[in-house]
Amino acid sequence: MITTRRTRQLAASAVAAALGVTALAGCGSSDDTSSGSGGTKGSGSKTVTLVSHDSFNASKDVLKQFTEETGYTVKVLKSGDAGVALNQEILTKGSPRGDVFFGVDNTLLSRALDSGLFTPYEAKGIDRVAADTRLDAGRHRVTPVDTGDICVNYDKKYFADKKLAPPRSFDDLAKPAYKDLLVTENAGTSSPGLGFLLGTIATYGEKGYQDYWKKLERNGVKVVDGWEQAYNEEFSGSAGGKKAKADRPLVVSYASSPPVEVLYAKPQPAEAPTGVATGTCFRQIEFAGLLKGAKNEAGGKALLDFLISKKFQEDMPLNMFVNPVVKDAALPELFTKFGATVDSPATVAPDQIAKNREQWVQSWSSLVVK
Description:
By secondary structure, this protein is α/β, with parallel strands linked by helices. Helix content is 39%, strand content 18%. Helix 1 (7-19) packs parallel to helix 8 (227-234) and helix 7 (191-218) crosses helix 15.
C-alpha cells in the first residue's frame, strides 16, 4: 500500500529530531479539539468532526477563531496515512466517522469520487481559489485546500565542492555527470516515489517513461522503501543525512524541504543547505469534502468555508509545510526566502492516475526494483 501525504509531517519531525529540537508540527492525538468542551454529535451538535490523515495540523488560536466565529468546536480524528484514512471512509460510507474528510489528493481523488463519499457543497469563497486546483469544479464534491510539489532536492555543498552544476530537469538526472548520485523512494510504497514516477510519465508519456527509467537505472539511481530512509539516511544534504554520513547528494523530496532545514537549525543559516531542481516537480493538490451522511452537516459546511479562509490558509505553511490555494493568502518569509517556486510542475489527470496507477507501478517495479 502506498504511504501518502504524511511525509511533510515526517520531514519536520525528522529534521527536528536530527537537530535535537522539538518539531512545531507535531501530529497530536487523534481526538484533539480546538477549544471548549464541545458537544454531543447529532442534530444541533456544536462539535464538527474532521477526519484526516496524521499530518493535519493547525494553530490552536486559528481553530479557536473558528469556534468564536461559528460556535462550532473542531474535533480532529486522525486516521493514519491518507490511503488508510480514505479506505476507512469508503468502508463506512453512509455512516461516516465524522463530518468532513481532509487529505485526499489528486493521486487518490478519482477513487474517492467514484465511491460516492461526498455530498456536494460549494464553499463560500471558492472564487478566490486558484482555478487549476479545482479539479471537481463542476460538481463541488471536494474543495481544494493546499498544494505541494514533489521535486528532486540537492546538496548545495556537494555540488559547490565538485564545481558541478546541480541538475535542473528530468533529462539532467540521466546524464553521466550525475551517475550514482540520486536516491528515490519506491513508487509502490511511497507518496513522493509515486509522485516522481508520475512526473516522469507526464514528461515522457506512457511510451517513453520506461525508456527514461532504464536510463536512470543504468545511471545508478538508488531506490529505497520510503521518504524517511531516503531523506534522512541516504541524502547528504539533510541534517539527518549528515549525521548518517550519507553519500547521495540528490533525493526525491518536496519543494518545501529547504525551509524545513532552515526552520529547525540552531542557529538558523543565512542560506538553506539544500536546493530544488524545479524541472523535476510533480504537483499534488489536497482536498476536503463534506461526508455523505454527516451528522453535523451545517458544521461541516462551515468548516469547509473556514479551510479556504485567509486566516487558515496563511496558517498552513509552517504547520503542514504546504502552499495555500487562495489567491490572497500570503506565504511566510521562511517560504518566500528559502523555498522554491515551481512555475510549471508536471501533472496527470486524476482519472488517468486511477485507471493506470497499478499498471504503471508494476511496470516501473519490473525495471528498477531489485
